[in-house]
Amino acid sequence: MNLTKILFTIGPQTAKDEVAEALIKEGARGVRFNFSHGDHDTHLKNYRMIREISRKLKIPIATVMDLQGPKIRVGSLTQPVELKPGDIIEVGLKHTDESLKFIPFNNKRIISSIKKEERILIDDGKIILRSISSKKDSFLARVIIGGVVRSGKGLNLPDTDLKIPALTKKDRMDLLFGVKVGFDYVALSFVRSPRDIIMLKNIIKRHGASMKVIAKIERPEALRVIDEIYEVADMVMIARGDLGIEMPVYQVPVIQKRLIAKANQIKKPVIVATQMLESMMSALTPSRAEVTDISNAVYDGADVVMLSGETATGSYPVECVRMMKRIIIEAETHIGLDTSIGEDLNCIRRPSSKVHSIAAAIKQITREQKIRCIITFTQSGKTAEIISKYHLPLPIYAFTPDENVMNKISLLRGVFPIYIRYEKNTDHLIDKALEILLNIKKISRGDECIITGGMPIPKRGETNFLKIQTV
């Protein structure tokens, strides 16, 4: 089994029963719904399809709604505009100087934010402009690297302190839709400060929902307050696409390693995303660099690796998940009990609580004893999440009576949720869990298992016991 989880993006290529089912059978345990594309009817249809497949296969699946965020795009052009280095052009809402070429865009607040000599990147940084001066509804810019600009291309402002809200009107409408539908996670794009996460959480709480919040790290401002963002987010996504545009691309590998290390230090789940198997958009085999990239993410301690266009619009979505699973398993085979991901950071700082102490004890026991698996009883999913972040080379079977919790924790590294109806007698409940695992051939008689939970189990409370049991 792959312990590092696979999150795939659903799109035209995978919004079909047989294809989505094949992806889940191959090992995917999370589905990303990209709200930059598609309408609510399409997302609802796909959501219901995933839930039906999950019930059919009896495999819990996490659903992630990814908000578009304040994405700035080139507006509507009657025809493509060719820009040459040295050209002075006008960019903004209104074309006020007919002698200059004009590039429209879709956000009024940006003009007041842009200062002289700041860069404007178009089409994933292929075209680079530098601002000269600004007016009420537009600004002038000099073309540094030219190219052809087309409608709808992305526009990035890496040097600009953007005075725009983290949640757009569209995001708020999408969020309310997601709350009503019942998504497990919501990913917030272009996070700039912990206030963005807190605001989103407050909206979710006001609507009585329990969605977990994923902070997408893709802006320079986020890196300056990353400790504070990590404290308030439930999960973090290293969104290397826009991060590689907003920051010098050669800095991205180091940033990724540091963000993963920090997540492991404070025991926060982390996703690595974008272009992991990009060549498989049109080919059956990945590049050697992509295989190395995924393996390094696993070695560094990523909890989840994500596929974007590879499964949304690529030609070989099933093969992509199959290949990713093979790469993960091979990498995990070489992470033994003596390999301690982030161990030096753990010595510096580890969250203080009973469950963290128990999780640390479990890790020590697995180094000294031949343990087959971890069995935990959890009602909120928190115990499973914490044990997961200690990166044990063993499966964690998380028994819970809550199907919503099962779906959420299915995205956690090494965690395999199993439904169980709780009983008052703890010993009877443990026997029942062992019987389930025996029946599905996850354990055998004579195996040593570590069992943990909170006593009395039927009551929601902090984890307070650890037991080594021979099956």
Describe the protein's architecture and organization.
The strands form four sheets. The protein has an eight-stranded parallel β-barrel, surrounded by eight helices. The protein folds into three domains: about 230 residues, Phosphoenolpyruvate-binding domains (TIM Barrel); about 80 residues, M1 Pyruvate Kinase, Domain 3 (Beta Barrel); about 120 residues, Pyruvate Kinase, Chain: A, domain 1 (3-Layer(aba) Sandwich), CATH 3.40.1380. It is about 35% helix and about 20% strand. About 5% of the residues have low confidence. By secondary structure, the protein is of the alpha/beta class. The chain is built from 17 helices and 21 strands. Helix 1 runs parallel beside helix 12.
User: Helix amount, in percent?
Assistant: 25-40%
Write out the strand line-up for the largest beta sheet, numbering strands in chain order: 1-2-3-12-13-14-15-16
CATH architecture of the largest domain: Alpha-Beta Barrel
**CATH homology superfamily name of the largest domain:** Phosphoenolpyruvate-binding domains
C-alpha geometry: elongated
Strand content: 15-25%
Uncertain stretches: 337-348
Number of strands: 21
Number of helices: 17
CATH class call of the largest domain? Alpha Beta
Total tally of structural domains: 3
> What separation lies between the terminal Cα atoms?
21 Å
Major beta sheet, specifics?
A: 8 strands, parallel, barrel
- Radius of gyration (CA) equals 24 Å
CATH topology of the largest domain: TIM Barrel
Decide which structural class fits the backbone. alpha/beta
Q: What's the average pLDDT?
A: 92
